[in-house]
Amino acid sequence: MRLSKIATATAMALVLAPLAACSSSSSSSAGSTGSTSSSGGASASGATGDPMADKGQTLTYWASNQGTSLENDKAVLQPELDKFKAQTGITVNVEVVPWSDLLNRVLAATTSGQGPDVVNIGNTWSASVQATGAFLPFDDAAMAKIGGKDKFLAGSLSATGATGQPPTAVPIYSLAYGLYYNKKQFAAAGITAPPATWDEFTADAKKLTTASHWALALEGGSKTENIHSAFMLSQQQGGSFFDAAGKATFDTPQNVAAIKQYVDFMQTDKIVNPSDGQYSKGTDALKDFATGVTSMVFWQAASGSLKNFGMNDADIGVAPIPLPATMPAGGKKITSMVAGINLGVFKNTKYQDAALKFVNFMTSTDEQMILNKTYGSLPSIQSAYTDPAFQTPNVTVFKDILANSAAPMPPVPAESQFETLVGTAMTNFMAEAATGKTVTADEIHQALAAAQAQVTS
Amino acid sequence: MVETLTATPVRHDTKNGKAAAKPPRRKRQLLPYLLLVPAILLELLIHIGPMIVGVIISFYHLTQLYLANWRHAPAAGLDNYRVALNVNGAAGKALLHSFTVTLTYTVLVLGFSWLLGMTAAVLTQRAFRGRAIVRTLFLLPFALPIFASVITWNFMGQRDTGVINHVLVDQLHTQTTRPFWLIGPNSFPMLVAVTIWRTWPFAFLIISAGLQSIPDELYEAATLDGAGVMAQIRRVTLPLLAPVNRVLFVVLFLWTFNDFTTPYTLFGDTPPVQADLISLHIYTTSFTTWNFGTGSAMSVVLLLFLLLVTGIYLIVTNRRSDNA
Q: Which alpha helices (DSSP H) does A93-189 contain, by range?
């Protein structure tokens, strides 16, 4: 009898444990991070003219992981923060948060109201984060304090929240997708120019694919990479995942065609190694390209990483991702999503003026040059492009893509649901294609309809 | 019983003898409860509190729109439960699929872990040279940090670089094309195998401890009566191990059913459909889509299911042992 009582007690404890763990995990991280800025004098009146007006205040800044490691980021940022302190007397305590934690940390800070003053977010979260109302909107008054909205690249500024509303965060590092190709392997296969249309792309890719070599590398197991490609291809088809009212329209024929085209790179064209179906770390495909295992990859500006993997600078070519030879009805000439990192200010910060000064500093010409050069990303403000480092042919390609053929991911609150639901479905398609099953348009349509039914907003 | 009867009066004597010097009896009765108060408060705060919050959340439409002022999230009534339990809807269908996968997974893991644990425990019951080393080796998978051991399986399961395919394809030439282990149909057996590898040492440990309490005389008597090894296991070991097994099964069932770390470490946050375990499924539906109401409703349904299964199991097994 005693044992059975122990059994009952243990069983109860175990039954209850996961529920408790599940509901508490969102708040536990808030507890550990709830150390908002505490030092500093009385909040001074925000006279923008006097740089030292907010002297003695302390800001907490959560930076995202842009460098090779968290320590590397801290080493890159600290000298700049010291400069800021010298200019304004404001201390900034930076904490570099890994990408796997950042969204959860931001959500926890939102729920508890205890968080940093300034934070980096992935720009695709903008609309979702905006809907929580936790961030300070960059309305005209706030924009004026950080130098006005005209200083930013229009493309980057389009991925800062719902259309028609003031940005919820401003861009600091901008990125775009391009088609990276291996010049040496292209030349060896007798291809003189990178493909401009999908027909040329497939023809070139088939030339490049041999028994031991694949033309294209894809991060097939990564939700995020898959969804970015699906979005871009769907734009070219004239599709859209949300209508003007923000309602999900996943299962349109255009979206099905876009996803089918992506899966068919592996399934029908056989220009992608089936192994790519399980690439999910976010570096596997790039590494394959850098080490010559494949000749092409769709990637965001990555010259730094390519060099780290040991790729010869002279072999790296970049072109916009191809377009259909004849544009379908309603198709847009979009070759990339607007990628990048935005900087936001928490609404309940005690030091709003100091926080805006810091945003102004981070988006100033000098800092934009220094930081984007180090991280291999593109400046989000016009004036920084005067730096010779941003005038190389490869960087110019990305700048043009960002300026002319990039569109922001759907700026709706349900964007993160879209990424999860459709991204997961695509990951499953890639797994099926990799393991030898056939993914039909019908199946894609059904999966998209099921995903659409799960969107709540 | 005899012991307690004789012991009680003695204690009474001492108590009465010192009664004059000691504070009144009432306080002595209160003290144990006072000592328990911090523990109970902490239990309420850390364990029961968040659980109740979870249940409450399941009745609200808590999405990112209401995160900043979650006190104003609109009441959902039973909406979240309807979404979770409507098997004709997309979310309900996915949850049911995940539930079936998890159930199959649990039965397989439970069965094989017990069988392996039992076999190993019986084999190492008698002393032999190096028994301690063998037992330690057996326990190793359970002692390793879960992340470190499962991520190793992830490396081993890689298609092009993993050691599994290296052995199967490059060394033994059993397959012509390299199979996938972390996506597609093979991901489920892979997950089951990894979990059994991690879980069976625990079964082994508990059963070994249980075997210690079976007196040797019973085996000697059985041998004299002409019982072979199998008969001894069936007639002596298993019946006497029944109470241990009963606890073991409940613990293993709940661990396995709720397992999150193993699939998450092995597959990341997008598990293959074939190996879509329920804890990870709920995590994905609630955290990565910012829909905490539905996620909580699913958790509550899961909790009720586990309570029901565990309750029935304990009632049935207790009744059986009471009758015996």
A: 99-112, 126-132, 140-145, 154-157, 183-188
Please give the pLDDT value at position B4: 41
The reported pLDDT for the residue numbered A19 is: 46
- Chain B contact for A9, CB < 8 A? no
- How far is residue A349 CA from its own chain's centroid? 25
**What six digits make up the tokens of B64?**
């990112």
Considering the domain architecture, whether residues A167 and A248 belong to the same structural domain is answered as no
Chain B residues touching residue A435 (CB < 8 angstroms): 180, 183-186
ipTM: 0.79
pTM: 0.82
CATH number of A224's domain: 3.40.190.10
Residue A204 lies in a domain: yes
Residue A417, CA distances (Å) to A132, B31, B285, B287 in order:
15, 54, 9, 10
Same domain, A183 and A171: no
Contact A23 B296 (CB under 8 A): yes
The widest CA-to-CA distance across chain B, in whole angstroms, is 89
A81: Cα separation from own chain's centroid: 24
**CB-CB: which of A23, A107, A437 is closest to B54?**
A23
Specify the amino acid at residue B316: V
Report the residue of chain B nearest A418, measured CA to CA. Answer: B289
- List, in sequence order, every beta strand (DSSP E) within A280-434: 294-300, 316-319, 336-345, 378-379, 406-407
On whether any CB of chain B is under 8 Å from the CB of A326, the answer is no
Long-range pairs of B117-126 with CB within 8 A, sequence gap ≥ 24: B117/B200, B117/B201, B117/B202, B117/B203, B117/B204, B117/B205, B117/B206, B117/B207, B118/B203, B118/B207, B120/B200, B120/B204, B121/B204, B121/B207, B121/B208, B121/B210, B121/B211, B122/B211, B122/B233, B122/B237, B124/B208, B125/B208, B125/B211
Quote the pLDDT of residue B284: 82
What is the residue range of A287's domain? 176-335+411-453
* Amino acid of residue A147: G
A27 in contact with B at a CB cutoff of 8 Å?
Answer: yes
Is there a single domain that holds both residue A61 and residue A130? yes
* Mean pLDDT score of chain A: 87
Specify whether the CB–CB gap between B284 and A424 falls below 8 A: yes
Listed residue (B267, B261, B250, B3) closest to A3, CA to CA? B250
Q: Which residues contact A195 (CB under 8 A, 6 or more apart)?
A: A179, A201, A203, A204, A319, A322
